[in-house]
Amino acid sequence: MVNILLIHFVSLLFNYNIDSNVNRNNLVPSVALDTCAIIKKIRGDFLAINSKLKSFKKKKREVFDMSSEGGEIIGYYDNTFLTKAHSVFYGETGKVETDYYFNKTGLFFQYKKETFYDKPIYVKGFKIKKIEENRFYVYENKLIQWIVNKTLKSKTKVFKETNNAIKEELKDIKEVLSKN
Exposure pattern of 16-42 as b/e (b: 16+ CB <10 Å)? Predict the structure, then answer.
């Protein structure tokens, strides 16, 4: 009797471990667990870079041809390795601030904050109308999660277009920082 109970108990544990690697419909292995682990690692790397920001060498560039009212790009370097880039671009009715975070494989996280004003900045008394924050999680050079007000599905057309736009934007940022 004890042996039968032991066999059922072991069998139950074995089935539980198998089920934990399968989604609720028991159809395919769960990819969400991997994505969660990757995002957790990205957040840790993000915090590590920001905690050491003061120790990095800074390179600042004024930029006048990337927005209507100009802007600046600051690169933060650990020796010669670009770990973070911060850009601010101004427009008549708002500004865009973007932070890019890098590890040895390239961009792993982008934070973008867009501020919209109720009237152009040259009109007295302009106020902030809206602020939109975007968080882009990148793994192996691909956007794996985009959080704006909610998490967007990775299979959508706008998600894929945004992935390509980030790559193009990043090229321009790195080009500005590479100039002497």
Answer: eeeeeeeeeeeeeeeeeeeeeebbeeb
pLDDT digit string (tens) for 104-153? 999 999 999 999 999 998 899 999 999 999 999 999 888 998 888 665 65
Question: Beta strand 128-139 with 142-147: parallel, antiparallel or unpaired?
Answer: antiparallel
The two three-digit tokens of residue 80, written as one number: 């010669």
Residues in the chain: 180
- Report how far residue 83's alpha carbon sits from residue 112's, in angstroms, rounded to the nearest whole number: 17
Query: Distance of CA 117 to CAs 48, 93, 96, 120, 133, Å?
Result: 33, 5, 12, 7, 15
- Determine which helix (DSSP H) or strand (DSSP E) holds 14, and give its type and residue range: helix 2-20
Q: What is the pLDDT of residues 42-81, one digit of tens each?
A: 999 999 999 999 999 999 999 888 887 889 999 999 999 9
Residues 22, 29: Cα–Cα separation, whole Å: 4
pTM for the whole thing?
Answer: 0.75
**CB–CB of 118/148 below 8 Å?**
no
- Give the pair of three-digit tokens for residue 68: 């209507």
Q: Which residue(s) pair with 112 in the sheet?
A: 98, 134
Residues in CB range of 66: below 8 A, 6 or more apart = 89, 172, 176
